[in-house]
C-alpha cells in the first residue's frame, strides 16, 4: 500500500456550471484510524446531482462545503484496518465519506454491504439512496395505480429508471423523458416503459405528451423541472399527484428563472404537489432496500451503471451528470477489491 492518499477538495465555488477549476486533487498522507474507527479503502464513489448544491454558499437541506473542504459522498469501500470498531479487515462497508482513496470513519456511521447478495456497487445505486428515492417517491408520493399514466423525467438516470419500473409494477402506463435516442431505447426495450420521449429532439412537449399520454397524466415524478415540467402540468388529470424530487435543469442557474405560471392547472386538476426528501424515509430504509433487493433478484427491476475508472476522473463523472452522459447510476471505480 503506497503512503499517498489522493483527496478531492473544493478549489472554488462555481458560478453557473462547474468545471475542472472547481476541483483540486491533493496528495496527502493516509489517515490513521482513531479509537473506534476504521480505515477504509475506497472501491466505488458516487457522484450525485445534489452535490452541486453543496458547492453553493447558501442554506439548503445539506450543509454547504467550504472552499478547501474535501468533497464528500456515498462510498463503498473495504475495511483495511480496524481500531476497535465493530468491523473486521476485509469487510465491505458503505457510508458518507470523502472523495479520497482512503478515509477513516467511526464504526456507527457505516453500514455493512453483503457482497454475496448483489454486486457491491449497487449499494450506491439501485439498492442505495437513488433506488430508495425512487421507491418512496413512487410508492408514497406519486402513488401510481393500475390504469394510471405515470410520467417521469430524468427517466434513464439512477432514480428515474427505477421509478418508472416501480410504476410499471403497479400497473401504470409509463412515459419517460430522457436526453438521447439511446436512452429512449433503454427505457422502451430494456426497462419496459410504454413510451420514451427524447426531449432534446422534441420541440413541442405538450404535443409529445398528447401522443404518449392520450388520457392525461395521473402521477408525475419530476427529477428535472423547467419547460418539461411546465408542459406536464398542463396535462395533469383530476386529483393527479406530483412528486417533486429534483430540478436538475436549474441546479447551475444563479437565478431561478421565472417560468410560465402553471398553478391554475393545479386548481383545475386539484393536483397534490409534494416535495420529496429521501432522508425523511430513513426509518424505513431497511424495508425499501429489502424489497428492491428482491425485485432485482427476481428480475422485476433491471438496473444499469455507468462506471468511470480512476479517482482522478471523478470531476468528469460529476460534470457528466449535467450533460446527460450517464445511463443509470453514475459511479467512479477507485480501486479493485
Ligand atoms: P441521474 O442519474 O438522473 O443523472 C442526472 C440526469 O439528469 C442526466 O443523466 C441527464 O439525463 C439529466 N439532466 C441533466 N441536465 C438536464 C437538464 N438541463 N434538463 C433535463 N435533464 C437533465 O441523477 P439521479 O438519478 O441521481 O438524480 C435525479 C434527480 O433526483 C436529480 O434532480 C437529483 O437532484 C434528484 N434527487 C433527489 C433526491 C431527494 O431526496 N429529493 C434524492 C436523489 C436524487 P438526460 O440525458 O436525460 O438529460
TrEMBL record:
Protein name, entry field: NADP-dependent oxidoreductase
Gene3D superfamilies: Medium-chain alcohol dehydrogenases, catalytic domain, NAD(P)-binding Rossmann-like Domain
Matches recorded under PANTHER family: PROSTAGLANDIN REDUCTASE, PROSTAGLANDIN REDUCTASE 1
Enoyl reductase (ER) domain mapped to chain residues: 16-332
Species, as recorded: Haloarcula argentinensis
Region annotation Disordered: where it falls in the sequence: 1-34
Keywords: Oxidoreductase
Family matches, as InterPro entries: ADH-like_C, ADH_N_2, ER, GroES-like_sf, MDR_fam, NAD(P)-bd_dom_sf
Statement: the UniProt record of this protein carries the keyword Oxidoreductase: yes
UniProt keyword RNA-binding, yes or no: no
UniProt xrefs under SUPFAM superfamilies: GroES-like, NAD(P)-binding Rossmann-fold domains
